[in-house]
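Is this the right way to post structure tokens for a design question? Let me know if I should format differently. Anyway, here goes:
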């Protein structure tokens, strides 16, 4: 197979684009997809101070590399979740990347800063680990970006991730989540702007991008995520994509172009009702009796009492 752009031998075939690319044209393709996503959704402006949440995996390390190549002032944020060897090892990949590229890495350890880890938090809150983990990560990412004065927080969610989340939200018709599912969540009181610049690139492209640049990343999945619903959705979508390449990209892009706006009001209504958490100040729904979900998990896991005020 030959490269679609320059006719040199291709190193990768992308069936969804009905094309093969040589090394240089593939790198150019990845950069172009990120540049287009940033432009299309006005994710960030040159000169803004970007914080990239890096897990040590291919997506977030690839994203950090791509943003720096595109000229963005991007620092990394690694959150230590206390998931045994997995966390130790993923931290070492994030640190090695920062060291090798002379980039700044902010590290926040859940135990040191908040007094609990994900296994403890999920047990105490009787939530599945991924739910306690997702909630804690969102809280810590936002707090870190706000405290350190970043303009925007970027995560490494890719096309496969977004398609799987969309699939799950549609299967259960979670309309509030559909209104919130967008590659840009604008800043609001207590919230930093959040962006997903990899929305146009798939998992395989990110893995190939890292290999081509010699970026070492953690290959293992989180041991606590095994068998979760999200992975099942990914497998189902992969089976469909195998038969009709391009389905995932069309599913996500058509949703964003034609469907998302119908659910925005519902999500905005929920956001408008938020009040500062009485413990940490994070925006919280009134139904939570003044205390945010993160502070409640933290209190259960550490045995601390939290002041609950009547709302
Ligand atoms: P996940 O929730 O594991 O699918 O990860 C989604 C995105 O969250 C990744 O692409 C990263 O940008 C970010 N992320 C996940 N885990 C961490 C972590 N431990 N520290 C910092 N960022 C993370
Ligand atoms: Fe969140 Fe594993 S990374 S439960
Ligand atoms: Zn709180």
């Amino acid at each position: 197979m030959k490269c679609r752009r320059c006719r040199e031998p291709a190193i990768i075939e992308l069936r969804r684009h009905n094309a093969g690319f040589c090394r240089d044209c593939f790198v150019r393709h990845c950069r172009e997809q990120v540049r287009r996503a940033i432009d299309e959704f006005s994710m960030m402006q040159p000169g803004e101070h970007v914080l990239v949440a890096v897990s040590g995996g291919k997506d977030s390390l690839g994203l950090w590399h791509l943003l720096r190549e595109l000229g963005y002032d991007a620092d990394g944020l690694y959150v230590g979740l206390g998931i045994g060897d997995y966390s130790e090892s993923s931290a070492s990949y994030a640190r090695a990347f920062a060291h090798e590229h002379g980039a700044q890495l902010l590290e926040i350890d859940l135990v040191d800063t908040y007094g609990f880890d994900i296994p403890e938090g999920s047990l105490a809150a009787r939530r599945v680990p991924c739910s306690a983990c997702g909630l804690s990560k969102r809280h810590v990412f936002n707090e870190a970006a706000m405290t350190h004065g970043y303009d925007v927080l970027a995560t490494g969610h890719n096309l496969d991730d977004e398609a799987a989340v969309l699939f799950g939200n549609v299967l259960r018709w979670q309309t509030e989540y559909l209104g919130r599912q967008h590659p840009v969540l604008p800043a609001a009181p207590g919230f930093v702007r959040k962006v997903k610049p990899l929305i146009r690139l798939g998992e395989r492209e990110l893995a190939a991008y890292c290999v081509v640049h010699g970026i070492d990343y953690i290959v293992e999945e989180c041991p606590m995520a095994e068998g979760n619903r999200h992975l099942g959705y990914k497998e189902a979508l992969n089976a469909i994509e195998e038969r009709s390449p391009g389905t995932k990209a069309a599913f996500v892009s058509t949703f964003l172009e034609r469907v998302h706006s119908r659910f925005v009001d519902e999500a905005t209504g929920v956001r408008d009702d938020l009040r500062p958490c009485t413990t940490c100040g994070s925006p919280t729904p009134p139904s939570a009796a003044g205390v945010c979900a993160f502070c409640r998990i933290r209190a259960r896991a550490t045995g601390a009492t939290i002041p609950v005020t009547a709302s």
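Format looks fine. Someone answered above. Worth noting: Residues 54 and 183 are 17 Å apart (CA to CA). Residues 81, 83, 118, 129-130, 133, 222, 224-225 surround FE2/S2 (inorganic) cluster (ligand 2) (CB under 6 Å).
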